[in-house]
Amino acid sequence: MSFEEVAILAVVAVTLALILIRPRGVSEAWIATGGALLMLAVSPLTLGDLPDVLSETGDVLLFLTGMMALTILVEHAGVFAHLAEFTARLARGNGRLLFCNVFLLGAIVTALLSLDVTVIMLTPIIYLVAKRRGLDPLPFMFACTFVANTASLVLPVSNLTNLLVYHDLDIAFSRFAAVMWWPNLAAAVVNLLVFLILFRKRLPRRFSVVSADPLPPTGWWFTAAALVLTGTLAGLIGLGLTGRPLAPAALGGAAVLLVIGLIGGKVVLPRLIGEFSWQVLLFVVGMFLVVRGVESGLLDGWNLPVPGSPGGALIYGSVVSAIGSNIVNNVPMTLLMMSLFPRVEGATQEAFAYGTLVGANIGPTLTTYGSLATMLWLTVVRRRGITITTRDYLTVSLLTMPPVLIAATVALWLSL
Fold first, then answer.
1. Degrees (nearest 5) of the Cα angle 92, 111, 349?
2. Rounded to two decimals, what is the model's pTM?
3. b vs e for 76-105, b when ≥16 Cβ sit within 10 Å of the residue's Cβ?
């Protein structure tokens, strides 16, 4: 192994270790940025590659920008508080039923709108449910991020990884849904059962249906925010079903509501900018540069053999993509696995592709940086004063990810 290859591996190892440890609470974004700068120094990667990385991540960055801005505005208008109240009333005071409802709602939103929308919009709603009733928010917060990842297999629009494979292999929409329905159901159900066991002592048997805290008023600002949010979600569904980028709907909705709020005196721009999680965008670009350095310096012409049978290819795709997603993040790992698709054909290629998605969607729940959705979730919960350490997260993920991944892989094998 050459000095360059050793240096690249060292940069990756140090970057990932620091993201896990977060010494003195340093943000993952700054650590990823530091890793990217080091990668520029030790790998064939140059600043000339930055435009390509920005082009690859452009739609994701714009989508996240629009959704995060829209979420802040909608939350200030009180829409989430009223949605939280409605969600709580549906559970009729039953704590476990409320937890199950969170999973069901998260699975539906993820299927139709994508996992990123789930963590950005569902997390603040459920946090308000717990806060207004004095419930322990931690089990409900974990439910939001895990269901977003584990229930993101069912439709091409549910996850960016799905869209990448869906377009690359030109899979029929109906075929994709028919195959992935059962793995998606198995993953969500097993995840829910594991969580009900893990959090059995922290979930209340009963809670007060009616909160003592007053709800925000429902004036014109509330109505405008609710209408814009509904229109944005409809736009996301339409764009997703037609295979188009989601950024225009997210940015359009945020821009419309921002203008309405500024004209009506409901939005203070410096406050909005201060609440915006810019570091998430920095993390995405930094990690993509780290991965690009690995690709250019280590993986160019990589020659991993793929099993020739559908069953072997399915398991191989699931396991390898799950492991890799916790090293370089699930989106870059999916792109790397896609480079192997041409090496097999027919039923074996199909099994390999679907297995890759099972590993890339469920596997990254093991670490806090494996999935962008988990990173977004951490940003949302930290903004609300909830501290979740790497140790806290791993205590849950190490007991959850393996059985969920196994259940989904077995269900996929049966489905095919």
1. 145
2. 0.81
3. bbbbbbbbbbebbeebebbbeebbbbbbeb
